[in-house]
Design goal:
Layout lengths: L10 H13 L2 H16 L4 H18 L1 H22 L2 H9 L6 H14 L4 H18 L4 H10 L2 H6 L6 H13 L9 H7 L5 H16 L1 E2 L2 H11 L26 H26 L10 H6 L3 H22 L5 H13 L2 H16 L23 H19 L2 H28 L2 H22 L9 H20 L4 H9 L4 H28 L4 H19 L1 E2 L2
Antiparallel strand pairs: 1-2
Helix pairs in contact: 1-2, 1-20, 2-3, 2-18, 3-18, 4-16, 4-17, 5-7, 5-14, 6-7, 6-8, 6-12, 7-8, 7-23, 8-23, 8-24, 10-11, 10-18, 10-21, 12-24, 12-25, 14-16, 18-21, 19-20, 19-21, 20-21, 20-22, 20-24, 21-22, 22-24, 24-25
Length: 560
């Protein structure tokens, strides 16, 4: 059957990508893509297009029940973080950890481990650890540039990997949008893709491993080496910046910092989420949950993640407020203000999520309420069927190859093999140019998942959660998106890292960039490229660690 829009179905996501790179404004670019798509489906009629943008694309994406749970979870996690920080819980936790640092080496390792502990939010990681660890790093003459790098390298990477963070619901939601864009039904679950892709997020894992290797070897290179040497020779150079603190990571006056005020809400949140995963998963499976075949993985895979995360965040938020009030650390008004401030910093991410969801649904084939079509192009009045068009192009080319000979089959196979690398490069470029990982994920995942499905189907390969090309492509989007969040000069976490650590912003960018590019190169050369040619991920991960050690040993110089 003739596709209703042809190549025009590719235009809205392309407009969003090009504008995002050119303007570095994710929300405006996503909205422009939505408007472009509405004009296409409305046949160029401005009145109909405006109606569709507001009533068919933006509003349904906002009021979707699962989407509202994602919004509520993210806001409540932000509110909990705000209360925990203001009540001194995080400061108490850091004081518990800081005695472990008794040298430059252990000081850097302590900062790294602290970043792993603050796994639930990248903003909390940056604004808290910068101010908290600054005196420790000053004591051992660790430069502010190195501290900013340590903090920044454990912010988005850890939050993006964690199964309990302000990121997880967003990432799972984007994966679900990609699965909904498939031209046919599948039994794949977004949570399966999320967990299965973790070993394939080469950039993220290597970025986290890069820090301890630097600390243990005592080596640095490039601008970071010069910054570290300057700090050792002139320890007072960074002192004038000591007052540059972020107010959001400071406890209220006259509060006693207690570590358990941070740990208990986090533990309760984890337990409630895991408990509801189990309960809702068993309810979904019904009698099948009683069979030995359906273990925890199947039960958790069938769980209602939206409901679980929502009530888990609510439990953590309520406990943090009760602890602060019961110990008279904060008044009711201070608790409300801290919660509101913590929730407020999450709003930009939610706006990006909203717009990206609307754009991804526009390029799909579902009804306004999310129901799948019953006949081909049933909802062409407001859906573009972009994945169907991409699949038609690829499948047609494959059929032509089959009838003309075997020469082209190798070309198609090469396309599949290069897909994880191409996706990583595109995601890294887009996230670096825009400074947003959520926007990058929202734009690419709904396109990459159906594209991978089409390529694998054309080769006759099974499209399942165990296929390395599928997991590698998904992991490349999630890892490449974090590249920009990690090191882009316009990224929130990059800015917050330099500010909270009292480091000049561009000095942080310049010293961090060679390390980020090194890790990205290793992620490609020893990750996505050999993965495409069939090398096991469990061989590639040790190879990347060996590559990190080799680069730091050969290129790095001793600081002391």
């Amino acid at each position: 059957m003739f596709h209703p829009y042809g190549w025009l179905s590719l235009l809205p996501p392309l407009v969003a990508i090009v504008l995002a790179i050119a303007t570095r404004r994710a929300v405006a670019s996503l909205v422009a893509g939505i408007v472009c798509g509405a004009f296409i489906t409305a046949g160029g009629h401005p009145g109909i297009a405006l109606h569709d943008v507001l009533e068919i694309h933006l509003w349904p994406a906002l009021i979707d029940p699962n989407k509202l749970r994602v919004f509520a979870f993210t806001l409540m996690m932000g509110a909990m973080i705000g209360i925990v920080c203001r009540s001194g819980g995080m400061q108490g936790l850091m004081r518990l950890v800081s005695p472990l640092a008794n040298s430059r080496r252990s000081g850097q390792l302590t900062a790294w481990l602290s970043g792993l502990i603050i796994f639930f939010d990248d903003y909390a990681n940056t604004v808290l650890l910068g101010g908290t660890l600054r005196p420790l790093c000053d004591r051992w003459r660790i430069s502010r540039e190195k501290l900013a790098y340590l903090v920044d390298s454990t912010a988005a990477p850890v939050a993006g990997l964690s199964l309990l963070s302000t990121w997880v619901a967003v990432e799972i939601d984007y994966l679900q949008e990609g699965l909904l864009s498939l031209p046919s039904a599948t039994d794949l679950r977004a949570i399966d893709l999320f967990v299965g892709s973790i070993p394939y997020r080469f950039y993220v894992l290597s970025a986290l491993l890069f820090i301890p290797v630097l600390a243990l070897t005592g080596r640095d290179y490039g601008p970071m080496w010069r910054a570290e040497r300057r700090r050792l020779r002139f320890p007072s150079d960074d002192d004038p910046q000591d007052g540059a603190e972020s107010s959001s990571d400071q406890a209220s006056a006259n509060v006693t910092a207690r570590w358990y005020n941070a740990v208990l809400p986090i533990v309760v949140t984890v337990l409630v989420v895991l408990g509801l995963f189990y309960v809702t998963g068993r309810q979904e499976l019904g009698a099948a949950a009683q069979t030995p075949v359906n273990g925890l993985k199947e039960i958790f895979g069938a769980a209602d993640s939206y409901l679980s995360l929502y009530y888990g965040a609510m439990a953590g938020l309520l406990l943090s407020a009760l602890l602060s009030r019961a110990q008279r650390l904060l008044s009711a008004a201070q608790i409300a203000n801290a919660a509101a401030e913590g929730a407020r910093v999450m709003v930009p991410a939610l706006i990006i999520l909203w717009c990206a969801t609307a754009l991804s649904r526009m390029t799909g084939d579902s009804r306004i309420d999310g129901m799948p079509p019953t006949v081909p192009y049933e909802y062409k009045a407001y859906r573009l069927y972009t994945a169907d068009y991409l699949a038609r192009i690829i499948v047609t080319e494959e059929e032509d190859i089959d009838t003309s000979g075997e020469a082209g089959t190798g070309g198609a196979a090469v396309t599949v093999k290069l897909l994880p690398t191409a996706v990583f490069l595109l995601a890294a470029l887009l996230s670096f140019a825009t400074g947003t990982s959520f926007g990058t994920m929202g734009i690419l995942l709904p396109m990459v998942i159906p594209l991978t499905h089409a390529l694998l189907s054309a080769e006759g390969a099974a499209f399942d959660v165990h296929h390395p090309i599928l997991l590698g492509s998904v992991g490349s989007v999630l890892a490449g998106a974090i590249f920009g969040d990690h090191c882009s000069p316009i990224s929130d976490t990059t800015i917050l890292s330099s500010q909270s650590c009292g480091c000049d912003h561009m000095a942080h960018v310049v010293t961090q960039m060679p390390y980020a590019l090194t890790v990205a190169t290793l992620a490609i050369v020893l990750g996505t490229l050999p993965l495409g040619w069939g090398v096991s991920v469990w061989i590639l991960l040790p190879c990347q660690l060996a590559g990190i050690v080799t680069v730091i040993t050969c290129a790095g110089r001793l600081v002391e």
